[in-house]
Amino acid sequence: MSLEKRYMLFISLICISFIFTANGTLSETPKSAPSKHFVLVHGACHGAWSWFKLVPLLKSSGHNVTALDLGASGVDPRQAMDLRSISDYFQPLRHFMASLPHHERVILVGHSYGGLAISQAMEYFPDKVSVAVFISALMPGPALNISTINQEIRRRAVPELDDKYTFANGTSNAPATFTFGPLELATKLYQLSSAEDLTLATMLMRPLPLFTEADISNELRLSKQNYSSVKRVFIVLEYDLIYQKDFQLWMIKKNPPNEVKLVLSDHMVIVSHTKMLLPHLLDVAKKYG
């Protein structure tokens, strides 16, 4: 068995019971219908597995939960180089949203880079989204495009540690993929997480395909009619060292949501401070769901 196949098998064994539980279509039919349906979308280099602590808490609170793998992420069988556009990366979420009954409305929750995916879903399926939650997530809008966001990220950039890039057409051209390095994970993403959670994340990282700004802009044409018709909540993470607090507040100022919440956490709040995050999500479900 090749190293690649062993790697995918390892991820599958770690995640399979979690994913079956997270996806309502694969789990046992509950005795009574859940009151709300949360759809969880992970960040860069992560997968549905990164929600493993939050899923059971939401389910035990009476809600239905679906955690998705985006393209070439988690246990998605495609490789990063198989994706030709960020549209391919977003595809699993689009397909899921399209499969929902016309009467069903979900709570979209995007973490970090996952904010881009849920933004497209808001534009394409506004009638199927009751509210979108951005957890320290990229939050473009009709008046805030990805080019402006990227410029601000570059302006605030700090030196990377051991992140890995691959190049399809030589190092003189733009990189094709990106992966967080172990030191970067420990220092900037999981600095308030347990050693066990950090170890798991380090083992399950997958490369993020990098797409051109033009490609992303083309896929994120967000309108007031669709995108802006969906209510939004932004959860600020106080000790985030990837998207630092002042950058989060900058996005909020440029693209004001309906509500802003604060959690005293590092970037990986969905792992390190799940029980602090949970009440905010339950409150969102009560107010907007």
TrEMBL record:
<dbReference type="GO" id="GO:0009696">
    <property type="term" value="P:salicylic acid metabolic process"/>
</dbReference>
<dbReference type="InterPro" id="IPR000073">
    <property type="entry name" value="AB_hydrolase_1"/>
</dbReference>
<feature type="signal peptide">
    <location>
        <begin position="1"/>
        <end position="24"/>
    </location>
</feature>
<dbReference type="GO" id="GO:0047606">
    <property type="term" value="F:(S)-hydroxynitrile lyase activity"/>
</dbReference>
<keyword id="KW-0732">Signal</keyword>
<comment type="similarity">
    <text>Belongs to the AB hydrolase superfamily. Hydroxynitrile lyase family.</text>
</comment>
<feature type="domain" description="AB hydrolase-1">
    <location>
        <begin position="38"/>
        <end position="272"/>
    </location>
</feature>
<dbReference type="Pfam" id="PF12697">
    <property type="entry name" value="Abhydrolase_6"/>
</dbReference>
<dbReference type="InterPro" id="IPR045889">
    <property type="entry name" value="MES/HNL"/>
</dbReference>
<dbReference type="GO" id="GO:0009694">
    <property type="term" value="P:jasmonic acid metabolic process"/>
</dbReference>
<dbReference type="GO" id="GO:0080031">
    <property type="term" value="F:methyl salicylate esterase activity"/>
</dbReference>
<dbReference type="GO" id="GO:0080030">
    <property type="term" value="F:methyl indole-3-acetate esterase activity"/>
</dbReference>
<keyword id="KW-0456">Lyase</keyword>
<dbReference type="InterPro" id="IPR029058">
    <property type="entry name" value="AB_hydrolase_fold"/>
</dbReference>
<dbReference type="GO" id="GO:0080032">
    <property type="term" value="F:methyl jasmonate esterase activity"/>
</dbReference>
<protein>
    <recommendedName>
        <fullName>(S)-hydroxynitrile lyase</fullName>
        <ecNumber>4.1.2.47</ecNumber>
    </recommendedName>
</protein>
